[in-house]
Design a protein that fits this description.
Length: 188
Amino acid sequence: MIDPSFLRSKHAAGTPYADYVRSSPQHEPAWRAVEARVQLSDAQRALVGGFTRRINVICLSGMWCGDCSAQGPMLHAIAAASPMIDLRWLDRDAHADLSDEVRICGGLRVPTVIFANEDFEFLALLGDRTLSRYRAIASRALGASCPLPGARVADDELSATVQDWLDEFERAHLIARLSPRLRGKHGD
């Protein structure tokens, strides 16, 4: 698995969401358009806000990527709802050493999200699309592999994909929360 010191160094090299999105004025509008539409429900905010273990999250992304512009704002909304989530953004191509470690089906996919616990031990990996996103794309007759940035995402697909990502954040948190080692460390 991925060495914790390597994940720690990559996380430290990562960029906060606002800086990452501003890094490409050409692509920023597509990200901001989805960001304006993403809203967590009260129950979703309460769930994420109740996290008690720190989760360090790295998103390998590309500002040019349609899937990233469609899902990145979702990740940001989830992370913003909890002080226990530290989400950092890395350009996939600029961090090829990490991207190569997390190839999916032999490819360099984006977004690819790496979840690590407070000690940067690997928890989980998800990329490049959630199940709801894959289902929606498949229902459109297996079209292009990467939608253009700014392509409108249907409201029901947006909501389902937010829930998929939220489920993955919750899953990573529960892995950390129920870890016998971390429970011993925190006395809970």
